Amino acid sequence: MVELARVIRDLREELERAIVAAEGEALRFELGPIELDLSVELERSGQAGAKVRFWVVESGADAAVRATSAQRISLTLQPTLAGASDPLLISGRAGAHEQ
Questions:
Q1: What superkingdom does the record give (predicted)?
Q2: What is the pTM (predicted TM-score) of this model?
């Protein structure tokens, strides 16, 4: 399992790389809302002041065993760039098999 915060942090890093790759490209895409549909498990500790943690269930055999305790959540994220008023633009480059 992976912490939900880690999934979002990895997504942010991928988007930042795509934004940098868009600089100077003729074809770019405006970045709109991002929808995530995840299977999660909640973890609560019995300690005073403990927080609830969300764990994203990874696909595979292990996920099948825990399916009874997993919950599905959907998140819609609207990415913004600090200090920017223009929409975010990303680009991609076709691989050799996509040309």
A1: Bacteria
A2: 0.66
